[in-house]
Amino acid sequence: MSLHPVRIGLLGFGNVGGPLVGLIAEQRTDIAALTGLDLTVTRVAVNDLTKARPGLGDAVLTDQASEVIAADDVDLVVELVGAVDLAREWIGQALRAGKSVVTGNKALLAAHGRELFDLASENNVELLFEASVAGAIPLMRTLQRSLRGEPIDRIVGIVNGTTNYMLSAMTEDGADYSEILLEAQRLGYAEADPTADVEGLDAQAKAAIIATVAFGVAITSDDVPVEGISSVTSIDIATAQRLGFVIKLLAVVERSGAEAPYEISARVHPTMVPLDHPLATVRGSFNAVFIEGGAVGELMLYGRGAGGRPTASAVLGDVIEAAASIAHGSLRQLPGLGDALVRPPEAAMSAFYLDLGVDDSPGVLAQVSGAFGANSVSIKSMEQQGLGAEANLVFITHQASEADMAATIEKLTSLPSVKRVGALYRVMGS
To answer: Does the pTM exceed 0.90?
Structure first.
């Protein structure tokens, strides 16, 4: 079998770029035998040329990304720097130069994906991005290839390994949020500034990308309402367990309507997941994505969602696919993205959990129940615990709109008998 050489230019040699170069070196012979592709890394752009780079000769290194992009001995560009503005500029340069690009830059794609996908199409090259969403899980290829003809209704996923590690630890150890965050930082799961993870911004960008690919319309992070996990308490975790749930940070994307144009909804928030649902068993830094379709029914993809080597594996899959396209002239591109009809956040439907502190006196329950009913929120279950002069009421509702639930909370807050409006969570499957 004759080999097709494909030369790779890498932008960035950090937590993913380093393992990627290692994987290419380790698997070069096997990849060649299986695919007929001879992959070599010929150029690497780094910030600091004085730092030792194991496995790379000095002739390969440069501190100028533009040199890598323009080099005659680079057929394919891999962007792993993470910065949005610079990456946008460099990827644009590569695409205009007629070079396909592999990236794992979720923030970039969630903000400027449509622009870059169009640019790839105009220049008859590919922009592949498997590693941008769920680490080693092949979600993008599954949606774009295996489920290409599937009418996807809903995708629900745990797509951030840091928050899933933290919530798993809080559930299993009974520890407080602040204690677990420090532990996650010590272990390297959370950054020194954990905002992107714990406030849901990382998952927000991933939800936008998933919705774009699943439904073929342009969704950005601005279209995705987000709530993080920083307000989740050990008491909330324990209450959820007692009621038969576990709390997970979920990205939810779905379409509604009987026929096109469909309304698209995407959101990220902590959710009470029933203990018998497959997502409830996803522990630690693992990710999982649950897909619901009209023909396929239900399926779940599960795997490591974080770490340099698992993420590099996803990048390598895209590199091989892009290299095959270069060698054989076939392209995988997103079709032209339509304008999204984004469902207003207040119209999104969910069941809810709500914790209230109220006066423990006659007639209070009727007042509280009346506030739910007056705003079209139906109560599925209610539990009362007396706490001296105050009673604690825990409600789980049937499906209701965000707007109706917000109106209910506003009414409850105004009742003199309601002393405290506590935790509010969406509830999966009720």
So the answer is: yes
